[in-house]
Amino acid sequence: MQWSSGYVHGIDYPVGFFPEQSPVHLSFACLAQGVEPVPLDREFTYMELGCGQGLTSTVLAAANPQGRFYAVDFLPTQVRTAQDMASAAGIDNLTVLECSFEQMARGEIDLPAFDFVTMYGVYSWVDRTNRGHILDFLRRYLKPGGIVYLNYNALPGWSSALSLQRMLREFGRHDMCDRQAQLHQGGALVRALSQAGAAAFGAAEATGLRRRLRALESDEPGYLAHEYLNQGWDALFSIDVIQDLAQAKLDYVGSAELAYGFPELYLSHAQQSLLAQQPNAGMRELVWDQICNSSFREDIYVRGARRMSPHQRDAWLERCGLALTEAPSRITLELPLAIGNVRADAHTYQPVMDALCQRPHSFAELAALPALRKQGRGLREIASMAILLSASRQAAPFFLSAAAQPRQAAQRLNRLIAGWSAESDCFQALASPLLGNGLPSGLLQRVAFDQLSQAQSQPEQWVLPMAQAIHRQGTHLQRGGAPLSTREEIHAELLALAQAICTQRLPVWANLNMAPQQATSPG
């Protein structure tokens, strides 16, 4: 048997950052569900299973210097990239390992007990045996009260594409072609079957199959290979996952997509009633999946979840704050959420937004705003507002203790990532010590960050490096949907973008304790 045991290798998973995996997000999600979270004002331990090229764990380690982070992957090329990045940035609270789930499950690797264990995509992409090793690992290493995040391809939403996945996978079973050719030829066969009237693909437009076929042409080959071609690939019913993790004493807490916790915003009264009638979490989630036709789930579990009293929950909420992650000029009451756009009540939300445009605020400070105090809004209402603003990617919660955390590791990593933007657009996140999380960052923003780190403080000085970066990436600037072609047009557009970053993005970075700083010594 090959060393990969049927897992895709020879093509790396694309670099990505996933903020839902952060300790802050997971602890706040537990708090939102009334479950006692893991305290982050002291040392904690964190493991990412299947870390890919390591951006998520590296950013989180830099943003949470009080934590001890571990990340593991099966593919040597990905592990080497992650190790090199952590070493270059001097992130000494992160250990990146190359080993299998079986080795860890058997205790062959020297590891501590963990407060957090996260995995992105892995649970769907490995076979049943390796899912068993993951459960054994959790039994052995997850602390009581520890939090687990896992996402996976879910049923019934994936049902319509199961034939597509199987046909793509079969093209590579006997090494008939390389991965990209496998995806292309398998997709072509499915299209031909659909056009020929194959009954299995007759409802392609209604089921979303055509959307997946289009994605075969546009998405990165590395993502598609890991999404479709693993021999152990499986789409899962949530009730089966809940029952599997219960064997490791894990209780289902809720979704990491926090907007789903507001069913009144997107479910009918009849649908809410059906959910309320279910006898346990497994059945509720199974029914919810049928209502929403779930194809992807992000689940949070706790080993021995403890419900909090209202007093305990309020005490935790007093330790929370909220900060904008978007420029004030981009803040809107129209909240783009996973459940659809929701119009926030201006009477309640506008005072909060106005306050956050000035600086981050604690929940207690927001509840004390005159307009909200007059409405009788307390900490729990502020928490609900924080959830929806966070889910809309306009703001993010944080724990107040983070304000005192050292910033040096985040600065080193951010300078490194920003410096790479001259040659690569792969690493698209920067670390925020206040949020204890990463912040998505576009190419031109990272070029500006790099220039500011080199004491180039004027936007006019950033235009040439920006132009060089987009030229190397093959990116074409547009204005109003029309491509810019002349040197003068491109220069004017880049100067306007640089000035906008200076006036709008730089204050956000400053509020999140991540404003660019010059290096004071090597590394």
Written overview of the protein:
The protein contains 23 helices and 16 strands. A hairpin with a 2-residue loop joins strand 15 and strand 16. It folds into 4 domains: 19-153 and 234-264 and 295-303, Vaccinia Virus protein VP39 (Rossmann fold); 159-228, no CATH class; 319-403; 406-511, no CATH class. Helix content is 46%, strand content 16%. The chain has 523 residues and is α/β, with parallel strands linked by helices.
Which descriptors would you attach to this protein?
523 residues; alpha/beta; Rossmann fold; 4 domains; 7-stranded mixed sheet; 3-stranded antiparallel sheet; 23 helices; globular; methyltransferase; SAM-dependent_MTases_sf; MeTrfase_reg_dom_prd; transferase
Give Rg in angstroms. 24 Å
Give the name of the CATH superfamily of the largest domain. Vaccinia Virus protein VP39
Number of helices: 23
Count every beta strand, where a strand is a DSSP E run of 2 or more residues: 16
Specify the CATH architecture of the largest domain: 3-Layer(aba) Sandwich
Domain Methyltransferase: 42-163
GO molecular function: methyltransferase activity
InterPro entries: Methyltranfer_dom, MeTrfase_reg_dom_prd, SAM-dependent_MTases_sf
Protein name: SAM-dependent methyltransferase protein
